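An instance as discussed:

___
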Amino acid sequence: MSTTLVRAVCPHDCPDTCAMLVTVQDGVAIAVKGDPDHPPTGGVLCTKVARYTERTYHPDRLLYPQKRVGKKGEGRFERISWDEAIATITAKLKAISNPLAILPYSYAGTMGQVQGESMAARFLNKIGASFLDRTICAAAGTKAYQYTLGKRLGTDVEQTQNARLIIIWGGNPIASSLHFWTRVQEAKRQGAKIIAIDPYRSLSAEKCHQHIALLPGTDAALVLGMMHVLINEDLLDHDYIERYTLGFEQLKIAVQEWPPERVAHVCGITPEEVLGLAREYGQGAQRGEASMIRMNYGLQRVRGGGMAVRNIACLPALVGAWRHAAGGVLLSSSGSFAKNSVAIERPDLFPQEQAQRTINMSNIGDTLLRESSDEFGPRIEALIVYNSNPVAIAPESQVVAQGFAREDLFTVVLEHFQTDTADYADLLLPATTQLEHVDVHASYGHRYMMANNQAIAPLGEAKSNTEVFRLLAKAMGYVEDCFSESDEEIAAQAFDFTHPIAQHTNWSELKTQGWSKLRMPDAVHAQGGFTTPSGKCEFYSQQMLEDGLPPLPSYIAPYESVASNPTLAAQYPLAMISPPARNFLNSTFVNVKSLRDTEGEPHLDIHPQDAAARSIVSGEMLRIFNDRGSFVAKARVTDKARVGLVVGLSVWWKKLASDHKNANEVTSQKLTDMGHGPTFYDVLVQVERI
């Protein structure tokens, strides 16, 4: 009996990017555990990834290429060979006269740089396909952060336990960032105060000292109120403002329009909550204590989501929180890494004489139904889906399904399981899991470069994403050397190991050691060093003005709320958000029975006051609806949802719900104020008993 231990990385869309140790016995992975020596992981995996062998060896794994034999959406397929699959795809793509009619759709099914956008990007660049604007998660906040601070660097998560005030803004780290939460608890034991700002009293908010349950989409207004108090009560670090910021005098005037009373009215909270939060933040800084804000992505999924992130990003510079290693703000650490995207994606392969087109993934429903036009370009004729499940996760799901149901749309799906999207494929190709291929990872929650070594041979006839696109490139007759590079060779190029933050290691050392921390200062902005045009934190942004946006922090009301759209609210009076369920990760893990059994079935949390007005009691089946569609969920009457808000924890596979629908039936394809991101949490609905 032969037993080995293989270093690997969790590939999923989570800021923790855990280091894993895979125990392999006679070629079979028998256990997956967290690496105890990796500081962010500390030997602990979440309940989802701790069961990774259950997912890898799941009886429903796709193991052979298949072609559709029923109608689109029915999910009926028959097995074919890889030769037939590659030949069919090649023939279809060659028959398309304008390559811009070919579109990829991919996102964070894996966060790896090799199995993500490396060989796939090379192939699609060479063919001249339309580009995909991958906006569906972080686009609004990324753009806002760029305007205000520059690169997404942020506080080192390993400093969290040293903060004396931690504000968890728009996130539920118990479900979505377990290792950050562990450090929060350590800070709490050392006397730190923990505050959650979230419309919903999540598992994490319940365990904080204070929970401020503001209305969805009003975060930017709350920050303006904080700024009003900080400035008017002189809870400021004037030296830091003078040295390292731009536009303070304009900001000082602008926030006078946002006294706590007005903010409280907009946010649906009390003036005392606004005053208390601002004073807690400012007075602690004046005592020399580190104050940390951990933003997450929930707060940016509304019309003014970008502005909300921008406003929050301004706060640490006002009070000098960046002076402390445990101070400042963390949205994402992904800007820290010296990635070598040009080398692994090869944008130079795109035909120089050909026009380019970029499609926003958040509008995939409308895009697939759009006809050719001079403005839009050619209609989409071929769609290649990998690392994503758009029929389940994209907004306005009914329209998305209509687009995928087009008989004249040739759709290829690379997948582990027969997802909602896979049911619409013409060709369904079996993909390898993280245990079956090589990859390299950055992180958006910590500062470690990570290597994933292949632990086991691919199951059945599964192939890695890179191998599928290599085969397609060969069949298309592409002869460039880059299409012959192995995954190891691509991984070796993923980071710029000549950069000062990464030059202490290389790919060979990385895959042996498993991980290596970037060489960066603990407090990245202690002396400014912002990568904005001015080199400062820009309270006033000339670039925003030139882009048609307010140059100063401001408030942009939701598309759909009682205050901003009273006519719509008269028909659909309840706001709805659909944050991740604890046992799922986006739509991943929904088909793992042990996790689904723990989650139960789709539920809708509704406040007792709103339930009583509709004669709803816990356990009843509800219909949640608006003009875009409807879905069914079981009522949970609870004050975790504030008055006027319902919460549908997501994202369920539609085929595994009783009505074959999920919360995205009622979400909108409207976009955020900046970054062209989706507005999943900018939704009004009505709820009724079935």
